[in-house]
Amino acid sequence: MAKKKFKINNPGYCPLCGTDDLQYGTATPDGEDLYYPWTCNDKKCKASGKEYYHLDFCSHLSVHDKNDNFVPSESEEDLVNEKDEN
Is residue 52 classed as helix, strand or coil in its secondary structure? Predict the structure, then answer.
């Protein structure tokens, strides 16, 4: 039997047949990464695997103090100011 190789290694595509018809499971944390288990829906392929993503901190959002007052981040503050101006 010939050894199989990846046709593509991009998110959202089956690495063996290249289709974007994947069925995803629930995201699962794995250390500093997380993965989505997937199954290829192509009738001839039916491969399965895990699609991994590395997690990087972006920002704190939707922060409220102990009195439930919204405390916007810098990016959210810009949005609040735009609303006030309109």
Answer: strand
CA distance 29 to 15: 22
Backbone angles phi, psi at 36, to 5 degrees: -115, 120
Tokens of 2: 């010939």
What does each C-alpha distance from 43 to 2, 17, 19, 22 come to in angstroms? 20, 11, 11, 11
Paired strand residues for 30: 33
Q: Domain locations in the chain?
A: 1-55, 58-86
Between CA 13 and CA 4 the distance in angstroms is 16
Which token pair is 8? Answer: 């593509």
The two three-digit tokens of residue 83, written as one number = 């609303």
Rounded Cα distance, 30 and 51, in Å: 12
Query: For the segment 48-72, what is each residue's pLDDT rounded down to a tens digit?
Result: 999 999 988 888 888 999 999 989 8
